[in-house]
Design the sequence.
């Protein structure tokens, strides 16, 4: 009875003093990590709260302008920009905050543009790789930023090799590649000889990423079974940074980024 009274007094104190005291008390619970605290305090307690999670500020939606029949994204620095075969980045867009994340790369210490990511995404990638290492998972970054010019070279080469229709299934049209945004990274492991292959999905590393990337703000951008929505083949190696809130929702609902923007409410 005494214990029950103590718990009631504590709960009353929480209600009076607010969230700051709640976090203070949670910090004293030994089995709750900061991550678990966030999950607890962010769990919707009502339909209204869930609706708040399925809403997004208007600044995170694409602002587009028609140029030569293409939808060109005007707010390219938007970390949630929907870049695909319908929405293109400007030819001259180069992120201003590109940095090299401190993670292992498949090509070692060689200086290369594809080792770059936007600063926020790079920081999140470092945290994800560090957490993977703690879990006994060894990851390697393979390809991040890619300029419009470089994408054009790759697309033209693939078109010459297999024809434009097949090329469009595996290589993004210049301007429609997430790699140009500086928010995407292709990831691999020794289990598949550091290659970008579908078999990566069956490795311990691929499984870990699919199950945990959202915790760090990344999503598996081109999942299996969603090819008709993304218009790309299954790419278990391609991860895109969208931030923690959106990544959590996309993972829980098993959505693509396209589906997320179809469902989320603009506020």
Sequence:
């Amino acid at each position: 009875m005494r214990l029950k009274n103590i718990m009631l007094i504590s709960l009353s104190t929480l209600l009076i003093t607010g969230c700051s005291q709640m976090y203070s008390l949670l910090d004293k619970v030994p089995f709750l990590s900061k991550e678990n605290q966030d999950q607890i305090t962010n769990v919707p307690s009502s339909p209204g709260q869930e609706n708040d999670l399925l809403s997004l500020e208007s600044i995170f939606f694409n602002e587009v302008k028609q140029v030569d029949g293409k939808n060109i994204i005007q707010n390219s620095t938007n970390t949630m920009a929907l870049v695909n075969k319908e929405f293109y980045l400007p030819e001259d867009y180069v992120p201003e905050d590109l940095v090299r994340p401190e993670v292992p790369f498949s090509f070692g210490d060689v200086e290369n543009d594809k080792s770059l990511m936007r600063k926020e995404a790079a920081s999140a990638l470092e945290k994800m790789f560090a957490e993977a290492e703690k879990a006994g998972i060894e990851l390697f970054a393979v390809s991040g930023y890619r300029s419009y010019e470089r994408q054009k070279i790759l697309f033209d080469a693939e078109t010459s090799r297999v024809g434009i229709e097949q090329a469009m299934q595996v290589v993004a049209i210049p301007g429609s590649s997430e790699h140009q945004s500086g928010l995407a990274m292709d990831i691999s492991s020794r289990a598949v000889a550091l290659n970008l292959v579908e078999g990566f999905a069956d490795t311990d590393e691929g499984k870990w990423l699919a199950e945990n990337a959202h915790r760090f703000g990344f999503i598996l951008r081109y999942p299996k079974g969603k090819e008709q929505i993304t218009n790309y083949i299954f790419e278990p190696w391609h991860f895109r940074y969208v931030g923690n809130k959106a990544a959590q929702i996309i993972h829980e609902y098993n959505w693509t980024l396209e589906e997320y923007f179809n469902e989320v409410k603009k506020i």
Notes: The chain is about 40% helix and 15% strand.
